[in-house]
């Protein structure tokens, strides 16, 4: 079964749109990933943490660069956080997902030290 649910995340300072994708495209679990719908721009990193509802429940996390797409049509990300079906069931079908997106500083220009 292939399906993908998503939640829209809007960053206020620059109105960039991020999608938290919840895919059912992996056996025995879900794939969670983040994608930015925007033109080319600054590189960004994300961290994602998933925790269950019960105290002391296992917590899962992932991080990486945020892929960019100009439009989203069943986009498949290269990386994702695998969350087993058993984890969803143990949490009563409800988990908490926290996503942080951070802009990377622009690369520093190297100073030309050769004499002209």
Automatic annotation (TrEMBL):
Q: Which domain of life is it from?
A: Eukaryota
What is this protein's name? Answer: Uncharacterized protein
């Amino acid at each position: 079964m292939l399906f993908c649910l998503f939640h829209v995340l809007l960053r206020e300072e620059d109105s960039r749109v991020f999608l938290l994708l919840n895919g059912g495209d992996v056996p025995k679990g879900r794939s969670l990933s983040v994608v930015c719908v925007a033109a080319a721009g600054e590189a960004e990193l994300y961290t994602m943490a998933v925790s269950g509802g019960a105290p002391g429940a296992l917590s899962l996390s992932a991080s990486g660069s945020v892929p960019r797409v100009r439009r989203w049509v069943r986009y498949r990300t290269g990386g994702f956080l695998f969350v087993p079906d058993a984890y969803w069931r143990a949490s009563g079908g409800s988990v908490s997902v926290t996503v942080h997106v951070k802009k990377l500083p622009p690369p520093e220009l190297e100073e030309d030290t050769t004499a002209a």
